[in-house]
Design a protein that fits this description.
Strand content: 15-25%
Order of helices and strands: EEEEEHEHEHEHEEEHEHEHH
Shape: globular
Strand order of the largest sheet: 3-13-12-9-8-7-6
Structural class: alpha/beta
Number of strands: 13
Largest sheet: 7 strands, parallel
Distance between the termini: 33 Å
């Protein structure tokens, strides 16, 4: 078998490359299949799945800002039963690799329900447990700032999950390392760092979005993500999926050096539907310039 210098190992799962579209920015994937063969992706983190259908927040809910965007989507989706029957089935027709299921709920019972219903979906390889969405009014927000709440959640879902659990943490906590350690201690198999940063938009030029809060993403988030990844990589021994402001191959290299095994591409997909494809195609050229033989060799090199 020909050696693949882009391949990485996430737990026991070998990916062709570390590039994964981030949840909420790639839908359920199949819409992008009309642009290119999405099987070139390392994997896909699908749109957040909730126990029941959610309409999301009132429109408008996206606002462009300098070096990024603020969104207040509110986890819009048709609920887990619809996702299994229609969305995952449709994705499976055009994508042959395992995926990451991003799950979110307002209480522990909701996460338990999601895992029980999704456990036997063969094309799901990881549960990405979203405890840090800044765009819902109640529920999951408590888990990302309260170590006791996160401990209780993991105690409830770890014994029933048939898939590895990756906890998606928020940058809004003062000590994200504490939450990372709690996640590891109580059974998390990995982390996704980071979610969007809560921000407020006040602008006379965009009156419809005026005085609205939401989660900021885009290039401005990247230094915050890099710091969180590096801090947590020093503190825990579970793998990290990096996320936040990635738009090119250089950003991927930097995030992996900070300690990420894989890298998610978020809002750049909304700007350019070919973003992930361009990054994958750009990595070999940049690796040659930087004399990197295998991507897996650079993971966490900035920690030394």
């Amino acid at each position: 078998m020909r050696h693949n210098p882009l391949s990485v190992k996430l737990n026991n799962w070998v990916l062709d490359n570390p590039i994964i579209p981030a949840s909420g920015t790639f839908g359920f994937g199949y819409d992008f299949a009309k642009y290119y063969d999405i099987n070139i992706l390392g994997s896909i983190s699908v749109k957040g799945i909730t126990p029941k259908p959610r309409f999301g927040n009132p429109l408008p809910r996206i606002c462009e800002v300098k070096n990024g965007m603020i969104n207040s989507i509110g986890l819009q989706n048709n609920g887990v039963d619809h996702v299994i029957k229609y969305e995952l089935a449709q994705l499976h027709r055009v994508y042959a690799k395992p995926i990451i299921a991003n799950i979110a709920a307002e209480e522990i019972a909701g996460y338990v329900e999601l895992i029980k219903k999704l456990n036997d979906q063969k094309n799901i390889s990881i549960f990405e447990v979203n405890i840090s969405c800044p765009n819902v009014k109640k529920g999951s927000l408590i888990f990302d700032t309260d170590p006791i709440a996160l401990q209780k959640l993991l105690k409830a879902i770890k014994p029933i999950s048939k898939k590895p659990l990756f906890i998606k943490l928020s940058p809004r906590v003062d000590e994200i390392v504490t939450m990372a350690k709690i996640a590891e201690r109580y059974g998390a198999d990995g982390l996704t760092l980071i979610n969007t940063m809560p921000r407020l938009m006040i602008s006379s030029a965009n009156a419809n979005y005026n005085n609205r809060t939401g989660g900021m993403s885009g290039p401005a988030l990247r230094p915050i993500a890099l710091r969180a990844i590096r801090q947590c990589a020093k503190a825990v021994n579970i793998p990290i999926i990096g996320c936040g402001g990635v738009s090119c191959a250089k950003d991927v290299i930097e995030m992996m050096k900070a300690g990420a095994t894989c890298v998610q591409v978020g809002s750049q997909n909304l700007i350019d539907p070919y973003a992930c494809k361009k990054i994958i195609e750009g990595l070999p050229k940049l690796m040659k310039q930087l004399k990197i033989k295998n991507l897996s060799n650079i993971i966490g090199t900035s920690l030394k």
